[in-house]
Every structure is written in structure tokens, then in C-alpha cells.
Design brief:
263 residues, mainly alpha, 12 helices, 83% helix
């Protein structure tokens, strides 16, 4: 019972942080579960299903508001979902799961994705401004001309990254979309990102569930704590300066990324 309550409080803490900052739970929840002593596969698998469930309500809300570009969602999913299924076939191989490289691969992937997410958070504002001002430069200019193909390729990358680390379907994906689709409103980018994240995290999470790497009791406890806390965090976030939140969160994710990548 004590463990259950502790997990509920942990879910509430992460849910509050998600509502406060808007950053996806994978960047916060998986490192927390690793800190509790859960193995990397269980932490990642449980977090993936946690993300799929918590974001489902957001998809319904964003669709009603007209904030989802379903064409972009389809492009992303056309790359991410097949990549996830192919990678799961490799991860669920019993010989690989029994090898010492299995958990090391997942932990290092988590560290790399946390560093990438923190880096994107640092520079996305500057890149977004250049894109909006029509000053993309050579590199961004090339990206714009081929953005449909790049969106598909990004889907493949996201499928691999999210399956290996549970990180990437939120802040990382949104940052890339903000640059590629600079004429699209931020609210529509966020809605599109959430709509793609739900099927991706669900399918990736189901793969871990089939492999026996999802703790269902832990999942329920996290959901009990986080769902109301997300709404509370979103209200409090209106009173906290975005710059301060961004600096704190970026530093935190960067530190965790370095830890899991190199130590």
C-alpha cells in the first residue's frame, strides 16, 4: 500500500510538471522510474502506455478545436508505426533480451534522447523566429522544399527513438514541426504532435506489454496521481514565466541525459 501511494504521488509530481511545462511525460517519467529501481525495459514500457492513455483525452479536445493537421499526422505515422513494429520484432527476440546489451541499449538511448530534447528546447525559439521571418538560411530553405518527405523520414526516426527510450513523441517532435511548418500556429502544431503521439506510444507500449515489461499496478498508480495533477499544473503554468521554466527544465533534462549516456 505504501508503494502504491508513493507511485501515486510520483505520478502527480510528473503530471503537475507536464501541465506546468508542456513537456511530454517520457522525458520525466522514465528517469523517475529508473530512480525507483525499475529496470529500463519496465520503466520504458510502462511509461509508453502511460503516455498513450494520458494523451488520448488531449487528442479529442484538440480535434474538437480544429487544432490537428491530420495530413501531417498521417505522414508521421506512415514512418513511425512501421519502424516501431520492425524494431519491436528485434527487441522482443528472447536471445537479445537475455543479453547484457538489451538494458544498456535502452538506457543509452534514453540518455541520448534527453540530450537531444534539451538541445531542441534551447534553440527551437530562435529557429522558429527565423522561419516565421522568412530568414531560413540555406539549411532551413532545403528543409522547407522537401518537408513532406522529411516529415515521413522524421516519423521513422521518432518510431525508433520512442520505442527505444519512450522520449521524443512530445517536445522533440513538436520542435521539429514548429520549424518545418513555420506558418502553422503553435496550437495546431501541438495538437498534431499529440495526435501522432497516441498511436505511436500505444503500439510501442503494447510491444513491451507482450514482452512482459509493463507493470500494470504501477501504471494504474501513476495514472491515478497524474491525471488530476496535469490540470492543476496547466493552471499554475499561466502564472510562471516561460523563460524560467524553460531554463530549469532544459538544465534538468540535459543533466539526466549526460548521466544515462556516459555513466
Amino acid at each position: 500500500m505504501i508503494d502504491f501511494l508513493l507511485h501515486v504521488l510520483s505520478g502527480a509530481a510528473v503530471g503537475f510538471a507536464i501541465g506546468l511545462t508542456g513537456v511530454g511525460g517520457g522525458s520525466l517519467m522514465t528517469p523517475l522510474l529508473l530512480g525507483f529501481g525499475y529496470s529500463a525495459p519496465v520503466a520504458i514500457g510502462t511509461d509508453l502506455l502511460y503516455a498513450a492513455i494520458t494523451k488520448t483525452g488531449g487528442v479529442i479536445s484538440q480535434h474538437r478545436r480544429g487544432n490537428i493537421d491530420w495530413k501531417v499526422v498521417l505522414l508521421l505515422a506512415s514512418g513511425s508505426l512501421p519502424a516501431t513494429l520492425v524494431l519491436q520484432a528485434f527487441l522482443l527476440d528472447s536471445n537479445f533480451q537475455d543479453s547484457p546489451g538489451f538494458e544498456a541499449l535502452l538506457t543509452r538511448s534514453l540518455g541520448v534522447m534527453l540530450i537531444v530534447t534539451a538541445t531542441m528546447m534551447m534553440f527551437r525559439g530562435r529557429l522558429r523566429k527565423k522561419a516565421i521571418d522568412d530568414k531560413p538560411g540555406l539549411v532551413l530553405g532545403i528543409l522547407y522544399r522537401h518537408r513532406s518527405a522529411l516529415t515521413l523520414v522524421m516519423g521513422v526516426v521518432l518510431g525508433i527513438c520512442v520505442t527505444l527510450s519512450s522520449v521524443g513523441a512530445g517536445a522533440f517532435c513538436a520542435a521539429i514541426l514548429l520549424i518545418l511548418y513555420s506558418k502553422t500556429t503553435t496550437s495546431r502544431i501541438i495538437g498534431t504532435d499529440i495526435a501522432h503521439a497516441v498511436p505511436l506510444t500505444f503500439i510501442a507500449g503494447m510491444g513491451y506489454l507482450l514482452g512482459g515489461y509493463v507493470d500494470l499496478e504501477l501504471l494504474v498508480a501513476l495514472l491515478v496521481g497524474s491525471l488530476p495533477a496535469i490540470h492543476l499544473g496547466s493552471r499554475v503554468g499561466n502564472w510562471v514565466p516561460d523563460r524560467i521554466l524553460n531554463i530549469i527544465l532544459t538544465s534538468f533534462l540535459l543533466g539526466l541525459g549526460i548521466k544515462y549516456s556516459f555513466f
